[in-house]
Amino acid sequence: MLGLRPGPRREYVGDQMPLPKRLARFNLRVTNRLARPLASRLPWFGVLTHRGRRSGWLYRTPVNLFRIPNWYVVALTYGPDTQWVRNVLEAGECELQTRGRWVRLNGPRLITDENRRLVPPPVRPILCVLGVDRFMLLRPE
To answer: Which of 135, 56, 63, 53 is nearest to 97 (CA)?
Structure first.
């Protein structure tokens, strides 16, 4: 595949997750609503549509998204224990809107890439400062 190994399971406790939970809650309620229309059209961004594990509701989550051969890479800026990550892992699929088009994705995998080789060089220092080294790989159908 990519020569990367699945990362160790890391539990993020309190402020050990890449970005604080308070910021995640604010983004969920405010920023995500404003970002969705732009994220579906801008480079390095996309909107994932996924179904809630318990509620069955459809959710649309803006994400940092990068394309590599045969895969889409999503930076897990709030760590791997967020609701949207759990939803996609359990369902095994989701839909992506990026650059104005829709792509069906499946086969989600969580990996650790401490050198951030999966993302473009200009993005690496930003993710490094944020402490982001966990990613989700998704395969287009």
So the answer is: 63
Q: What is the pLDDT of residue 43?
A: 80
Q: What is the pLDDT of residues 34-74, one digit of tens each?
A: 555 656 666 889 999 999 999 999 999 999 999 999 999 99
- Range(s) of the domain holding residue 105: 41-140
**68 is written with which tokens?**
């590599």
Which residues touch 135 (CB under 8 Å, ≥6 apart)?
73, 74, 75, 76, 110, 111, 112, 113, 118, 119
111 Cβ contact list (under 8 Å, min separation 6): 4, 5, 6, 7, 134, 135, 136, 137
Taking a C-beta distance cutoff of 8 angstroms, is the pair 45, 61 a contact? Answer: no
**Greater pLDDT, 32 or 44:** 44
Residue 113: give its domain's CATH number.
2.30.110.10
Query: Tell me, what's the pLDDT at 85?
Result: 97
Model pLDDT, residue 100: 86
Does 51 map to a domain?
yes
